[in-house]
Amino acid sequence: MNIIEELAKYKNIIDLELEKTIPNSDLMQKKIFEAMRYSIFAGGKRLRPILTLKTCEMISGSYEEVMKIALGVEMIHTYSLIHDDLPAIDNDDFRRGKPTNHKVFGEDIAILAGDGLLNLAYETMLDGIPLYENNYERYILAIKEISKSAGVFGMIGGQTVDIQLKDHIAEKKKLDFIHKNKTSALIEASIVSGALVAGANQEQIKHLKTYGQAIGLCFQIRDDVLDKIGDEKLLGKKIGSDETNHKLTYLSLYGIDKSISEIQRLNIKAIEALSIFNEKESLFFIELANHLAYRKC
Hints:
Layout: H1 3-21, H2 30-40, H3 47-60, H4 67-84, E1 94-95, E2 98-99, H5 101-105, H6 107-127, H7 136-150, H8 155-164, H9 172-198, H10 202-229, H11 232-235, H12 241-244, H13 250-273, H14 283-293
Antiparallel strand pairs: 1-2
Helix pairs in contact: 1-3, 2-6, 3-4, 3-9, 4-6, 4-9, 7-9, 8-9, 9-10, 10-13, 13-14
């Protein structure tokens, strides 16, 4: 399997569905749609919704029934990036090589664009319930999984601790909390939601949670490493921003060698978690784990 081609294939599928979902019409509030679309179509990898689709596909053989949830996941992720970039939080001028939302539309519209994407995410996910009448309980459980991962017991909780610790030295326990909640929680929930809709059993969900948490932590630590030694042209942003902003990262506590060792350990853990699945069915997830651990951007 060529993982790059597979990711591109599913990214295109998701992009087409997002085009249908986020209005591009001449409404009175057209500015908010313009700002929402600016960030949603700014070159994202679509990793989280792809995980939702591929997990459902691995368990049930089809991804169509979970598409609305996958779209909601991407909107939630994009809203979080818009708000992360704001001057009051990370104060970033560029993302993926383009000016951040507030640099183009102003802070007021950027805040509303994030709010708009978050709300539309839930509208979109709930729209899928009538399409899944045979077992809507599983669909609702999947939405609940996404909701928790994005809220105060997940992404927002991790972001809160991250903000508070920018200028403080902290122990590994707090750093793990930030990584587990700010980044890993939504990645894990993307996988679990796809599994729930597909009717996965508890043993499968347990192993998929382990996989999701491992690649989520691996993804974040790799981000930290790339911020130190990455290629600015590939990343689409300046490197060294974590150090400049005195942000707490795995690198700031343990240095680059131990960070790379931890990436390797998490990669192995992720692949081992897939052992209960047929190797052919789980090949995408094995290849993805390796890709995320050693990516350049």
